[in-house]
Structures are given as structure tokens and as C-alpha cells.
Amino acid sequence: MKLFKFFVTLVFTVVLIGCGESTPSNSLLKTQYEALLLDGTQDQNYQWFEISNVKKIDGFLEGENVYYADMKHRVKFLKSHSQVSRYFKKEGGMFGGMMAAMLTMQYGEFQAGTEADVDRKIRLLKKESGWVIDSSYEG
Hints:
Elements: H1 2-19, H2 26-38, E1 49-62, E2 66-77, H3 81-91, H4 96-107, E3 115-127, E4 130-133
Antiparallel strand pairs: 1-2, 2-3, 3-4
Helix pairs in contact: 3-4
């Protein structure tokens, strides 16, 4: 009887451990990563790029509450670098020039229709509500 109780307790423990969300799911990573890429970069009246083929390449858990993922996506520019830079400078106020310079540093000069594969490292934090991307992390 003691052996049976031990076995039942062991199985129950293993099942409970397996039910916990130890790492973020691929679908959650994709959804949050796409939101991170689009956040603050476009407004409804000026779409200048599209993203596609978002996928996790690799990842690892650090401790219980931090997860690092290597992500990859494809970007397609709908406007040229000069068009987007002019828009940023005109609409971006005092930060417009800085935004244009950051765009150049990240993507270089591009033409409308140019496509590129982009690799990026992200960090997710496990909160009570689940895994969320740490937008302050620059990996």
C-alpha cells in the first residue's frame, strides 16, 4: 500500500510539473514579437513596411522567470528610405531626425519593395499574468 501511495504521489507531482508553462509557446512568442515590431513604428495613415515569416530560431530559460529567444523575420519596405526619413523628420517633431538616423543605422539605404531577413534577440519575463516581452531589452 505504501508503494502504491508513493507511486500515485509521484505521478501526480510529475503531471503538475508538466502542466506549468515553463517556457513561452511559439504562438505567444510570434504574437508578442510582431506587436513589438509594429509598436510605435507606423500609424494608420502611413504604412512603410510589412513583416512576415516570423519564427523562433532558438531559446533558453534563465532561472524560472526569464526566457531569451533568437527570433527571425522578413521585412518588406513599402516606401523608400528617403521617403520614410522625410516623413519622420516632418511628423516626428524634435525626435524625427533621431528616428531617421536610427532607421539608417538599422536598415541602411533601401528602396520601396526591398526585402530583408532580420535576426533579433528578445527577452521575456514571466509575470503572474504569463510571459511578456521585456521591451527595454536590447539583445
